[in-house]
Amino acid sequence: MISRRITRLALVIFLLFAAASAAAAASVNLRDMDYTRMHPNVRIKDIADIEGARPNQLNGIGIVTGLNGTGDKTLMTRQIMRNLLKQYGLNLEDRAVVPKNVAIVSITAELPPYVRPGQTIDVVVGTMGDAKSLQGGTLLQAPLRAADGGIYAVAQGPVLVGGYTASGATATTTKNVPTAGRIPGGAIVEREVPTDHTSGGQMALLLRMPDFTTAQRVSDTINSTFGMVARPVDAGRVVVELPGQYTAAPTAFLARMEKLEIEPDAPARVAVNERTGTVVMGGDVRISSVAVAHGNLTVSVAEDDTVVQPSALSGGTTGTEMRTDITIDENGASLLAMPSTTTVRELVRVLNATGATPRDVIEILQAINEAGALHGQLINM
To answer: Which domain holds residue 254?
Structure first.
């Protein structure tokens, strides 16, 4: 009996010790996390495009039929319908053509890279005349041309409209835009665009957000994996020589390279939209010592050097560190302080704690920028 109690007590102690160890490990992990990191690691394929592998815009004009009396009433529609009917051997007078169930539409589409003949792409259609709605209509076969005048796809099919219109003797109601719609997979590709992204045994990466630091990091990451094959040309272009073992298989090289991860960099920016009261800021933005008074709200930012003493028996040395205090005074009632490096994120957090509206924050940021204390680019959207 005594041995059983001892065994149970030992089991309880073991479980408590295991739980304490897990909690300690979890707390260490939380302390070791890098909260000061501004940008996450991302794949090269998510920040860069391959030069030469680009989409192409297509457009055309077509006829949508089958409308329920919501079609065009313009002379242009009558003329186009007469020209269409002539192709089928029908010659009609202008007054014999009644286009109330027909609409002339513009057709647009984007031809992605690597698409081959026989594959389909989505198209968007929109009225060109005075048609009230395309609901229930069907697009007749229409060619889609590129900027060089060549026909690269042919579109046809029922139009999907995301809105509607209804009218009676004394009232009309409309939801969304019934004069525009989409045809998913409505165009068949008839001609491909040649893509040669490995001309001369090399290729180039085009950064979507040009930045010299990011371009250098992309080059260094590629070189650390495949050897000295990459070099940045400018802030937006990195040239890569195909390694010898991948000369006959460039696709395999691209598949490996685009999965490499880097930490991108970006200029310090703050984007504000006064119409909606939106403030979006980057983590790299800093603010110098400044005092701001906005209505009954006073913001004061001060920096000074503070002597830091090491812990007893730690073997450390006395040093100094920069501390920043942010003080908010609103009607003399509230007073807040933050001992940390001044960033826009911290300033906005303190302003929100005092009840400042987003528009107040925007006006304060604009004033700080005009005073030369905002170290970053302020973008008014």
So the answer is: 199-262
State how far the Cα of 99 lies from the Cα of 75, in Å rounded to an integer.
9
Q: Are 314 and 345 in contact (CB under 8 A)?
A: no
Per this entry, what is the length of the chain?
Answer: 381
The C-alpha atoms of residue 354 and residue 297 are separated, in whole angstroms, by: 9
Distances (CA, A) of 170 to 166, 167, 173: 11, 8, 11
Bridge partners of 155, per DSSP, are 142, 187
Which residues, in sequence order, are CB contacts of 225 under 8 Å at separation 6+?
256, 257, 260
Position 35 scores a pLDDT of 38
Single residue among 220, 238, 262 that ends a domain in this structure:
262
Structure tokens at 372: 């030369």
User: What's this model's pTM, rounded to 2 decimal places?
Assistant: 0.66
Examine the pLDDT at 11 and tell me if it is beyond 60.
no
The DSSP code for 343 is: B
Rounded to 5°, angle at Cα 290 from 288 and 293: 150
